[in-house]
Amino acid sequence: MEETFFMIKPDGVRRGLIGKVLERIERRGFRIERLELRSSVSQTLIDQHYESLVEQPFYPAIRDFMMSGPLVVGILSGESAIASWRQMMGATRPEEALPGTIRGDFAQAAPLGQTIQNIVHGSDSVESAAREIALWFEKEH
Ligand code: DAT
Ligand code: MG
């Protein structure tokens, strides 16, 4: 059994996709260990979450997007949960995400000049899962 951190980003909440995402999680047989709607998150938390991206020129747009509305965060557990949830999410860029994945079925290609909005997040390794779970659920905000 493995745990992973997941998120429904502000575009997913805004577009009314919480139920559809959670339905796929349940259908797939993951256990939902934690689940919270966060109505606002601090810039510090988002910067820590995306610490590997903060130096990128496109990062300010990502930060603004991530702070643009409520988001849902949670912890899933299951067999190979990290890789399995990443597969369910699909590729980062909506135009590359395969049909059948969450991003492939719901995410819309960003208009020119706008940041990628791809509905969901999932930890990409054992190390990042541990780090993100601690960051979102074990620290006081
Ligand atoms: P993923 O979300 O698939 O794990 P990532 O961790 O590389 O992808 O990037 C985090 C988010 O940042 C991603 O969901 C969308 C945004 N992003 C990544 N690369 C980008 C780029 N080159 N231009 C704009 N936004 C980008
Ligand atoms: Mg990532």
Order of helices and strands: EHHEHHEHHEH
The mean pLDDT is: 96
The CATH class turns out to be: Alpha Beta
Strand order in the largest sheet? 2-3-1-4
Strand percentage: 15-25%
- Distance, first to last CA: 28 Å
Q: Which structural category fits the helices and strands?
A: alpha+beta
The CATH level-2 architecture is identified as 2-Layer Sandwich
Number of distinct beta strands: 4
Shape by Cα distribution:
globular
How many structural domains does the protein architecture include? 1
Oligomerization category of the chains in this entry: single chain
Radius of gyration: 14 Å
How would a textbook summarize the main sheet?
4 strands, antiparallel
Small molecules (ligands, ions, cofactors) in the structure: 2'-deoxyadenosine-5'-diphosphate, magnesium ion
Share in helix = 40-55%
CATH topology type:
Alpha-Beta Plaits
Main location: cytoplasm
Subcellular location: Cytoplasm
Protein name: Nucleoside diphosphate kinase
Enzyme class: transferase
What is this structure, in a nutshell?
With 141 residues, this protein is α+β, with helices and mostly antiparallel strands. The chain is built from 7 helices and 4 strands, in the order E-H-H-E-H-H-E-H-H-E-H. The chain has a 4-stranded antiparallel beta sheet.
